[in-house]
Amino acid sequence: MNRFCIHAMILTILTVALAGCGRDASKDLARIEADVDARIETRRSRSQPFTGKTDPSRISVLIEYFEVPRVLFNDYLSENPINGNDDRFRRQIEIWLRTGQAKLRDMMAVQTESGHQAKTESFRDILYPTEIQSTNNENGDGMLRNFNTRKTGAIMTIDATLTDAGAIKIILNSSLSSHSGPPADSSAFQQTDLSTTLIIANGSYVFAGTGKQTDTPPDSLLAIFIRADSFQL
Questions:
Q1: Which pTM does this prediction carry?
Q2: Does the pLDDT value for residue 55 go beyond 90?
Q3: Which residues are bridge partners to 118 per DSSP?
Q4: CB-based contacts of 221: which residues, under 8 Å, 6+ apart?
Q5: Picking from 12-16, 121-125, 208-212, which range would have the lowest pLDDT averaged per residue?
Q6: What is the mean pLDDT of residues 188-198?
Q7: Element spanning 26, H or E
Q8: Residues 77-87 as b or e (16 or more Cβ within 10 Å = b)
Q9: φ and ψ of 181, to 5 deg
Q10: pLDDT of residue 50
Q11: How far is the CA of 159 from the CAs of 173, 205, 218, in angstroms?
Q12: Cβ density class 156-179: b for 16+ within 10 Å, e for less
């Protein structure tokens, strides 16, 4: 067997192997999409339908922060509108999560009775200096002085009301803050604040905005989603 034949055989084997990998990847993606769709249908089937009564009702609100590559985010929005019911967009985020292309950074949930306010927060205090005093030593080191503390973590405050049409009105104030770097580096803080008023269909997701944290990769952003559910007591 000459060298040309050997090269041709190797090329054929590689081509078949790559085609097989492509088919396997397509099958994996199809399985992920089918599983995501099944979970969505299960959630919808468990949502309580609107009975026409707004009182007494309880409302549950979920906020999620996803780290998403800018390219994927831009490609999706270039083909799909944001129309106030973003279940389709949230489905795509879930697929990106399952395929390792996106990451869940944080999430918070809270319940309250219709017409009432609720707040949930989870944070830790970071101690940082506001002044560095020179010690005039050979190393040029300084002494840290006058410390302050700053909270890092997540906070969500909502006012939630069930409307006469069965939708949920949310007045939301949320904050996600982080610190990445040496404790003495006060410039390593970054905070994403979101204040908005939304009308959300019961059991649906709404894309609420974007943000960024200190350790978010330069080619990624935070996509923020809100879901609201209501049920009768």
A1: 0.80
A2: no
A3: 158
A4: 67, 68, 70, 73, 210, 211, 212
A5: 12-16
A6: 90
A7: helix 3-46
A8: eeeeeeeeebb
A9: 140, 180
A10: 81
A11: 9, 17, 34
A12: bbbbbbbeeebbbbbebebbbbbb
